[in-house]
Amino acid sequence: MKSDEITLHRGLQGVYFDRSETTFIDGKQGVLEYRGYNIHDLAEYSTFEETAYLLIHGILPTQAQLDEFDSELKAARELPEKIFDVIDLVKDSHPMDVLRTAVSALASFDPERGDNSPEATIHKGNRLTSQVPGIVMAHHAIRRGKDPVKPSSTLGHAANFLYMLEGNEPSVDAANLMDKDFVLHADHGSNASAFTARTVAGTAADVHGAVTAGIAALSGPSHGGAAENVMQMAKEIGKPENAADYVRDLLSNRQRVMGFGHRVYKAEDPRARHLREGVKNLSEEMGQPEWYQILEGVVDAMKPYARRGIHVNVDFFAGVIYYLNGFPQDLFVPIFAVGRIPGWTIQVVEQLQHNILIRPLLQYTGEHDLDYVPISERG
Ligand code: ACO
Fold first, then answer.
1. Distance 269 CA to ligand 1 centre (A)
2. Strand 31-34 and strand 37-38: pairing?
3. pLDDT tens track of the chain, all 379 residues?
4. Element (H, E) at 25
């Protein structure tokens, strides 16, 4: 095809590549729905376990269905012993690299290894939902020379995650906020990591491979890594009154303000609202309201950019919540991954159900018909 006949969609911006029944996003209006349910209702009234069930099965569960699903998740929390050895081997890497390695290794221990049917993929994905929090927390313990905290067999998903940090049962409020964070992160259509997972599944590879690749895609600062950078920015700003100057300096140096902007949302990311409330309440409760004030100072300074469709995204308020919960900065992206496993799982299942190899084209802009010169004659 001649180059003037090619329409290039760099970054696949605005390209629909398949159909999905999982997540609806209206970027102009700032609407997000999982399986037809508005994210605001799910954030207010649902739990991570119920939302994960909804994403995977397409309907809200009855109490009996939810209880069964919850038992399945709790039963799968313990990690195979050898995974601790794998984690120990790579413990000095960034937690996302450790998570990627451990999830890849978990494929070898899964009872349905080699079965890539949609049913087995759902079972494996659910087991990953249970195991990933344990990997993140076990690594954090091992790298500090401590024994990993054994998962609780009774606490909910979010409370168990917080419990595994130091072995202390979290307050109901802290667990609820973590749970809300997981609900908000559970899926998000064809974002970079889910697209990556689908591309891997498109070759009929297994869900562990797809999630491993998804974790790699999520780790970058243009995607999940932004929460870590927002916290760094908040620390550098130091006081609410410094926020405006800090943002001005950043923008005048043509740098980006982390936690702002989104490929799809040109209105405020609807997930940010709930985390904003979370930061406000948590920072006041903990006697550190300046964190919320610093973030609002950045929001104020960014107001002129709203006209260009640059608003806060989900990562902007998340980092301070994790910080106030006692998580070190390099665990922020893994927390995102903990919440996202049901989303990656269902995207992979959808892909497998109507599978097609994902294989776009690249427009070649290099040379043609060059003479092959023997190495001895090259200058
Ligand atoms: N701060 C300042 N300017 C911005 C920002 C920002 N955070 N985001 C976009 N812009 C500007 C760009 O400089 C560009 O301006 P220009 O046209 O004058 O060059 C314009 O907006 C369009 O930006 P693109 O990078 O082309 O938009 P894209 O859709 O590719 O980018 C992205 C989306 C990568 C998220 C971008 O907004 C960004 O880098 N944000 C900061 C990182 C971040 O918060 N990532 C988390 C995203 S949410 C998530 O993954 C969960």
1. 13
2. antiparallel
3. 777 889 999 999 999 999 999 999 999 999 999 999 999 999 999 999 999 999 999 999 999 999 999 999 999 999 999 999 999 999 999 999 999 999 999 999 999 999 999 999 999 999 999 999 999 999 999 999 999 999 999 999 999 999 999 999 999 999 999 999 999 999 999 999 999 999 999 999 999 999 999 999 999 888 888 888 999 999 999 999 999 999 999 999 999 999 999 989 999 999 999 999 999 999 999 999 999 999 999 999 999 999 999 999 999 999 999 999 999 999 999 999 999 999 999 999 999 999 999 999 999 999 999 999 999 999 8
4. strand 23-26
Q: Is the CB of 314 under 6 A from ligand 1?
A: yes
CB of 315 shorter than 6 A to ligand 1: yes
Whether 259 and 269 have beta carbons less than 8 Å apart is answered as: no
Provide the CA 253 distance to its chain's centre, in angstroms. Answer: 29
Q: Could you tell me the distance, in angstroms and rounded to a whole number, from the CA of residue 252 to the centre of ligand 1?
A: 15
The H or E element spanning position 351 is helix 332-353
DSSP letter at 189 equals S
Taking the C-alpha atoms of residue 287 and residue 305, their distance in angstroms, rounded to an integer, is 31
CA-CA distance, 56 to 374, in Å (whole number)? 58
Burial class (CB in 10 A: 0-12, 13-18, 19+), 207: buried
In angstroms, what is the span from residue 181 Cα to ligand 1's centroid? 22
Cβ–ligand 1 distance for 258 under 6 Å, the answer: yes
262 lines ligand 1 (CB under 6 A): yes
Domains contained in the chain, CATH given: 32-221+328-353 (1.10.580.10), 226-324 (1.10.230.10)
pTM of the model: 0.94
